[in-house]
Amino acid sequence: MTFAPATVPQIPVLNYHHVHDGPDDFFRTRPDLFRRQMDVLRSEGFTAIGPDQLLAIAGTVPDRRYVMVTFDDGYVDFKEHAWPILKALSIPTTVFVISRHVGGWNDWDGLRRAPHRHLDAEALRELRHDGVVIGSHSCTHRPLFTTWGAALQRELRESRHDLEALTGAPVSTFAYPGGSEGWHVRRATRRVYDLAFATDSDHSRATSDRYRIARFDPCFSGNLDVFRRRLDEHCGFGRHAAR
């Protein structure tokens, strides 16, 4: 574990799930809109960083507008549609993977209306080699708020172990499945990971608990003006940084 202050600067953290043109629009951003949103990051003067860089600026007042781009669940459409755009624009990206569903389907998910394939081991290794940061999204995506003891430890520790073995790289970052977390989940997560990301939790302060970092899903920001407003709302210190 890396020693660091208890908080990190509050920056916008984008939390995508799907990028595709298919008929299933649940948590889906179309590739053309995704490209326009990434262009907004550049035109608005944001510097995209990964989790290691966020941890490195803990305890500091950022001197620029930072942003993070993350994806939950690790679907095949990330590699097909999102990563080519991100790679072309040199935007660092983190993908949070459900370790026991690598190469499988989203049969764990009672919300989505269509089947979606998860990235397999070969694709994850290829993406990792290409510069994508692989984080953990638990073993099974079960709600952690209602998970305790050994079952909670397995979701946290075994997912990290399995993903490190699969990718050959350290996995030090976690995203709570469905944003499901509480004091006991955060306490357990601190023993395993350096950073943990929630969903749209409190983002009104200049800093964020590094085990409850707020994110928002841009799939609900089809209007680019709304997208810009969400970025500004999540800026914290960066809200006042020079553009």
Task: Map the helices and strands.
Blueprint (H helix, E strand, L loop, with lengths): L6 E3 L3 E4 L1 E2 L8 E2 L1 H13 L2 E3 L2 H6 L8 E9 L2 H13 L4 E5 L23 H9 L3 E4 L12 H19 L5 E3 L7 H8 L4 E3 L9 E3 L14 H10 L10
Parallel strand pairs: 2-6, 3-4, 5-6, 6-7, 7-8, 9-10
Antiparallel strand pairs: 1-11
Helix pairs in contact: 1-3
The count of strands amounts to 11
The oligomeric status of these chains comes to single chain
Following the backbone from N to C, one meets helices and strands in this order, namely: EEEEHEHEHEHEHEHEEH
**How would you state the average pLDDT, rounded?**
92
Please indicate the percent range of residues in DSSP E strands (runs of 2 or more). Answer: 15-25%
CATH superfamily: Glycoside hydrolase/deacetylase
Largest sheet: 5 strands, parallel
What is the CATH top level name?
Answer: Alpha Beta
Helical content class: 25-40%
State the shape.
globular
How far apart are the termini? 34 Å
CATH architecture: Alpha-Beta Barrel
Determine the structural class based on helices, strands and strand pairing: alpha/beta
Sequence stretches where pLDDT stays below 50 over 5 or more residues: 238-243
Give Rg in angstroms.
17 Å
* Number of H- or I-type helical stretches: 7
Report on this model:
The chain has 243 residues and is an alpha/beta fold. It has one domain (7-240): TIM Barrel, CATH 3.20.20.370. 32% of the residues lie in helices and 17% in strands. It has 7 helices and 11 strands. The chain has helices at residues 31-43, 51-56, 76-88, 121-129, 149-167, 183-190, 224-233, and strands spanning 7-9, 13-16, 18-19, 28-29, 46-48, 65-73, 93-97, 133-136, 173-175, 195-197, 207-209. The strands form 4 sheets. Strands 2, 5, 6, 7 and 8 form a 5-stranded parallel sheet that branches. The chain starts with 6 loop residues before the first strand and ends in a 10-residue tail after the last helix.
